[in-house]
Amino acid sequence: VANRRAREDAVSRPEWAAEMHLESVGLVARLLRLHLLFGRVLDEVTAAVGIGDADYLVLGLIERSGDQGGSPTRIAEILGRSTGGMTLTLDRLEGMGWVTREPDPRDRRRIALRLTPARADATTRVRNALYAWEADLRLGDREKERLFAMADTLLELLADDRSSAPAPP
Amino acid sequence: VANRRAREDAVSRPEWAAEMHLESVGLVARLLRLHLLFGRVLDEVTAAVGIGDADYLVLGLIERSGDQGGSPTRIAEILGRSTGGMTLTLDRLEGMGWVTREPDPRDRRRIALRLTPARADATTRVRNALYAWEADLRLGDREKERLFAMADTLLELLADDRSSAPAPP
DNA sequence: CATATCTCAGGACAACTGATATCC
DNA sequence: CGGATATCAGTTGTCCTGAGATAT
Fold first, then answer.
1. Alpha carbon B92 to chain centroid, angstroms
2. Using an 8 Å Cβ cutoff, are A150 and B150 in contact?
């Protein structure tokens, strides 16, 4: 056990944790930091193209929804927002001429969301910028493979989680 | 090359990407999803203790600032917010009796932020809940080690980034 | 009728910008 | 004085909740 602890300690004190008063640096601390840093990258990239990061996520989901178009409810679910709030967001995006709402003839409750050509360009630029950012990391094949594997492991764990939120004593 | 591509494709199409219309699933897509999912975990855990996630980050940083106490500017920097906004946040936190502001006698421009005992408990509860969440993942030693290593790789890459945000054409 | 999808009205509130006071 | 630190005033904007309209 002593051996295990020593090995874990060796790897579990990254430089950035030096100035923090933490007993130990585990997965959560790393994920928290990752969350912050990646959020910032996202902010910068989207701002450079002139969209907010929240809007980019909406636009990106619409773009990826295929020929059927995106639906407000579905997008709200994925992003963890209310449908009412999503209507407001869409009003805004539509008002700026970035998104169109078309009634779906097959189910007239539904609405098909589509990007206007100009915004399709913009989201493509954001995505290209993100890909460029990824390319700038200059990952080797092996490293990439391992990062993918780790990310997928984490994502599976997180996706299975749905029932979390332990209550405090 | 054909071999490499085949191998990469095998690993680069996680299940969750099935319904998305993506040409390829790279690191960014995974990080985006990770960002969303972990953000939700954070929301749930903090909400269960009765704080907002943004507030938890502030409280957590104050708690970890050691004997000197935290300073508004420093916290704003770490979280990527404006100092003006931080003042408002601190007003709120102080108003709720969660944080105290003490003048620093050694540099009277500065202010030392401290948690009230009650809130120190709350942040501890959140942290414990996060640790419990981590423990619930039931990671094996080897898996943990690999996740740590990968997370640290990513964090280094992100930390070196500071100069990103490529401009669009 | 029960359910699903979307919208509307009204409100809450967090965060920003820019200017200001104080201190090193 | 030039820089840093924190705050204030005024505003913007995003999102939520809860109720309602229309369609299945």
1. 21
2. yes
Give the pairing of strands B99-103 and A99-103: unpaired
What is the C-alpha to C-alpha distance for residues B164 and B166, in angstroms, rounded to an integer?
A: 6
Q: Which residues contact A89 (CB under 8 A, 6 or more apart)?
A: A54, A55, A58, A81
- The residue whose two tokens read 């219309």 is B21
H-helix or E-strand spanning residue A102: strand A99-103
Considering only CB atoms, B28 lies closest to which of A35, A79, A131, namely: A131
pLDDT, tens digit, 9 for 90 and up, residues A14-39: 888 877 777 677 889 999 999 999 99
Does the reported pTM lie above 0.90?
no
Q: Alpha carbon of B58 to those of A16, B151, B168: distances in Å?
A: 17, 23, 34
What is the per-residue DSSP string for A106-124? TSTT-EEEEE-HHHHHHHH
Q: Which residues contact B24 (CB under 8 A, 6 or more apart)?
A: B12
DSSP letter string, B67-82: TT-B-HHHHHHHHT--
Q: How many CA atoms lie within 13 A of B155 on its CB side?
A: 21
Angle at A126 between CA A88 and CA B17, to 5 degrees: 80
Among A48, A155, A168, select the one facing B125 at the smallest CB separation: A168
Q: Which residue of B has its CA nearest to A43?
A: B165
pLDDT in tens, B64-96: 988 888 999 999 999 999 999 999 999 999 999
pLDDT at residue A114, rounded to an integer: 95
Which backbone phi and psi does B99 adopt, to 5 degrees? -140, 145
Count of CA atoms in the C-beta half-sphere (13 A) of B6: 3
Chain A residues close to B145, C-beta within 8 Å: 7-8, 11
Asked if A22 and B65 come within 8 Å (Cβ–Cβ), the reply is no
Say yes or no to pLDDT of B156 above 90: no
Tell me the residues of chain B between 33 and 52 that have a Cβ less than 8 Å away from chain A.
33-45, 47-49
Q: Where are the beta strands (DSSP E) in chain B?
A: 99-103, 111-115
